[in-house]
Amino acid sequence: MQDSFARLLSDARIRKVEVRSKAYKLADGGGLYLLVQPNGSMSWRYKFRVNGREGLLSIGQYPEVPLAAARTKHRDARAMVAEGVNPVQARRVERVEAERALVRAEAGSFAAVHDQWKEITEPRLALNTINQHRRECANFLLPEFGKRPVWEIKRPEVAMLLKRVERNAPEVARNLRTYLTQIFEHAIELGLVDANPVPSARMLRPRRKKQHAAMELENYPDFVSRMVASGHEPQTKAAMFLVILAACRKQEAAAARWSEFDLEGAAWTIPAERMKARREHWIPLSRQAVALLYRLRELSHGEFVFPHRTRANEPMASNTLNVMIDKIRLDGATVHGFRSMFSTYFNAQHASADVVERCLAHAPSNKVRAAYNRHEYQDERRDMMQQWADVLDAEIAKARNVVVVIGDAVLTPQLAA
Questions:
Q1: CA distances from 315 to 101, 293, 308 (A)
Q2: Which residues are catalytic?
Q3: Domain end: 153, 173, 203, which one?
């Protein structure tokens, strides 16, 4: 933009400027002036009017911004005003964009956003859930997207990753979709992306409707036979036996530590941070469960009863049991469903509901009664867990003798016989 007015200042005049007791202005023309302060400092200002409203733009300090540079910035600002744009607001937008670009450069990688999401969400989660999140993200998400800027990750490639994982681990794929949704929502809050690229849940196969259906007790021998004949690791099969014998959740067994067991006292105490309800859970162990653990103790010398196959300082992934169940392909068999089988059996026997629910680590549904009934039913629970192991043995005995080989030891469900 060419000047349509006479310029009034020169470098020589500015160098000879006098300092006064009050601030005053030296006009250069077109609304640009030099403001001289009583302390001798000088700054460039541009007074303008847009849509009838007056504005004032600070251009910079003199001599850091010399006369020629001040005029260039002034011309740029006048061009904005001529287009009806407020240069002060335009500068604010530019500053916000610069700050956003800085955030993108410093914290815009998927890994960085993932780490922030992890810090926010983990304090609200149980330890087992935290370990599961970390393991699944480390195995699938971070290798795929970790070093990339989040705004470059598009929906088709997210969908491809989820479908690839779903082929072998459908439950993990559903978990990953949940993590990705939360991570990208956090990225939106940070101003890194404008929309969430995670595809709809419809792109994954739905969970089986009978996810937690109880297997019929009469089908238990067939399940054991198929599990033993499968090519899965012996310790994975042993972990499944512990889940069944203790009526516990899969993650409680998979991440079990030897320090939690008192084999002489035939008890397993799971700390609160590893429990779904964040309450310590005491499990009396049947003779069969104790025998199983004694044999496992000969094979496992680290912290975990069921160490990871390749990383001995980490526990087995609880999803390993899901994978084994899926490959066995026996209708009605789910890992969680064995807890239902336990409950179904004892409720059919008209056993005490309080004892059954304590064995399953369920909070009493009647909150008033729970507030008064503090009894833990330890003797009754011990009898119930032994009866359960004996019932399972009896079912096996009616069908066939099933042998599970772990290392050099031969384990059968009738170990205590």
A1: 41, 16, 5
A2: 249, 276, 336, 339, 362, 372
A3: 203
